[in-house]
Amino acid sequence: MASPTIESILHENRLFAPPDGFAQTASIKSLEEYHALAERAAADPAAFWAELAQQELHWFQPWHTVLDWQPPFAQWFVGGKINISYNCLDRHLNTWRRNKAALIWEGEPGDSRTLTYAQLHREVCQMANVLKGMGVQKGDRVGIYMPMVPEAAIAMLACARIGAAHTVIFGGFSAEALKDRLNDAEAKVVITADGGFRKDKVIPLKAAVDQALEGGVPSVSGVLVVQRTKSEVSMVEGRDHWWHDLQATASAHCPAEEMDAEDLLFILYTSGTTGKPKGVVHTTGGYNLYTHMTFKWAFDIKDNDVYWCTADVGWITGHSYIVYGPLSNGATTVMYEGVPRPSNPGCFWDVIEKYGVTIFYTAPTAIRAFIKMGDELPKARDLSSLRLLGTVGEPINPEAWMWYHQVVGGERCPIIDTWWQTETGGFMITPLPGATPTKPGSATMPFPGIVADVVDLDGAPVPPGEGGYLVVKHPWPSMMRTVYGDDARYRRTYWEHIAPVNGQHLYFAGDGARKDADGYFWVMGRVDDVINVSGHRLGTMEVESALVSHPAVAEAAVVGRKDEVKGEDIYAFVILEGQYSASDELKQELKQHVVKEIGAIARPGEIKFADALPKTRSGKIIRRFLRNLASGEAIAGDASTMEDQSVLDQLRRG
Ligand code: WTA
Question: Is 197 helix (H, G, I), strand (E, B) or coil?
Fold first, then answer.
């Protein structure tokens, strides 16, 4: 697990105390208060969460059982009736927040739109009626394949309102990937747009939906299309409808459906160690509570904050911390369609200045890209409105942390480095900005109510400073409930890797970590066959399956290679079928093939043609050696178990 940057992280010992004024107004004001809260929560997690659920959320009907834990299956707030769209919208309408900005949206070309809570509520109710009119019922699944426009959030909330589960598919996924996900979820309706603006180009989303449906998605009976780019699209009679047409005549009266706390809220696909992405299942009550509390305490939200998370709604970060967490708290959430691009590399700083953003949440890969572009861009804008910063998606190297702290935060803003996953629903390990002194590169300590540890394969805690597996020891409200349609895979992937200890089941996240002598966690990255490219999770097997689906490829092995900006990049070793020969054109063709199969995020950075791959005598590919070769390092470890040692020489030469 060790690598040079990890070593540099481990020698990091700078400590940044919460700024004075900050601690005074924060919900949790000191380290002592944090520890007291965490201890109380750990002593009786069910009571801790029940108290918060009662205080913080609206329930149509109270629960009878806080937690029903049949390892590894958890149910929270059993018997309770709730609706997350009600908690995000309706309950703010009888308060002064009625006319507060709920969503501030900025489009890539510079157009913008602001929706108050009352306006957002109205749009959501209308869309909920549109969906009902298209035959969507409680329990149905709706696919959302959208650019970053307000309609994406409206669509999610409209589904939640009527009890349909959404499955948002990131707009960068290909038609092929879209088809697989829609089929797995058996979606009834797909909501999309004619296109989206990204990096000064138009992404043809509707065309991708058409292609996916032509490939065969029998469950889909209707498609709803937002007009965004005004590009030419073909509309299939009877199947396809314009969003604005149906919305214009829809009633704005739609009471929120009373959902069971454990009813399906959404499915979100993420990569694992096999070729098939898994549908992570989240339910209603526990997810609402946990994203609400983590947003409230970790972002220390105040009513005059302007909060901006730069993620895409296609990822869990967009679900939990652009839409549900902020709106449940009655906060103002900014949504931006664009990403830094050649025509405007400093666009993020423009948005911060324009809206007076006070809380900014982004990814280490973005920060590293900004460092490369130089300090001039952020320094050319007024960033003095910022008071709190956050990062997510991958370990942040201390150098990037320091730059973020100094150049963006003006040395006055605490940084919360939030460790969590699609599966966990919300932050698991994070500083609380008024309480936790931070160390650059450490996500610090678990959120109150989360019992996390670093253990060996037998589940025994490892001594401070030693590497091990990051685990969670007690169920928490927003934990994934299962893999959609595959309980066995859920059990196998997350709960069997590390044996139960004294009957206690350990959730294994797939990450390696160390805990230091102060109890701070240092997450070091995935220890399974998942790679993290610019904060996006990809399974090596997923990319391998895409490669071998090309007629020229006989065998493929994919590993991650360190990349200065992306964190990791995809490096593929490919063995060609006999009748094909290696060429640069073929390399380009194969890269393009992966883009077609999965999406641009999976484009291999490098393809290396090989005659053979290093294998053990039993035929298993020795990925460790491939990782060494990809990074240009010496082969580490014993090569004597290899079937044919000359393979390594050939790969080194070739
Ligand atoms: C990694 C994104 C270190 C980790 C919310 C995890 C992190 C995977 C951090 C989940 C962090 C996320 N420090 N590593 N602060 N945040 N990761 O499901 O490897 O897209 O397992 O969820 O990202 O990625 P996912």
Answer: strand
